[in-house]
Fold each of these.
Amino acid sequence: MSTLARLVGTGPLLLDFDGPVCSVFAGHPAPRVAAELVALIGAEGIAIPEAVYRESDPLAILRWVGSTSSTEITTAVEVALCAAELSASATATPTPFARDVILNARARGLAVAVVSNNSAPAIEAYLTAHGMAAYVSPIIGRAYADPGRMKPNPEPLLAAARALNVAPSRCTLIGDSMTDIEAARAAGVPVVGYANRPWKVDAFAHADAVVTSMRDIAELLSPMSPESPDLS
């Protein structure tokens, strides 16, 4: 059995959301959301560094405000980001073969969870709209107005393992960012890097395995795969 088959075919799968499951900001661009958050912060009279003005990742804006501003401002940004994510979930683009990964895993009796720095309501809305909510549990989203608890903090992964009543080492995370890999390492969770950009193949060298398409995982979990383990 290959390393990838062992990782994804023998225990619960923990999926990051934005990337492995869908492109959440495909129809509601992340740079626009980031700019809206920066404008909200600026309206409060807070000095904003040039690098933050140029930031295109809304989660990076939330991290910055959480580390530099009051709880009230952080909460205001959290509220705005949650609303933007929920809106974005309606136009998110499914990642090719992500649905097959989820359904094939469940057909084999494997638990599938989502562990994400995005908000849980947005994740739930997307999964419901795409007919997958019944196959994914638990959903571990971003801690509300507490960005220090987002990945690479291992707590979301540990929370998922607790909810599944398994040791972290029995799970496998599929993630598309360095924060996913760092969180997995800190939590003792094996990790598959989903390299959806060419530069990520080398960047994810410290993952346990790397794939460039979710198809690789879907096919391994298919009942027709010669590497698909018999869990009966």
Note: Residues 3-23+93-221 form a domain with the Rossmann fold fold (CATH 3.40.50.1000).
Amino acid sequence: MAKRGLYANIQAKRKRIKAGSGETMRKPGSKGAPTKANFVRSAKTAKKPKKKK
């Protein structure tokens, strides 16, 4: 079973925050926050949106 990706984790955390979990997003550059390299690597495997006909 494949692990969830970076964007899936971000969306899940935003959903929990909106629901009132009390969590906060990490600030850029803090320990454990995704780096620019993480976003570049995840963009390589991102699914392309389907074109409408």
Note: Residues 11 and 40 are 17 Å apart (CA to CA).
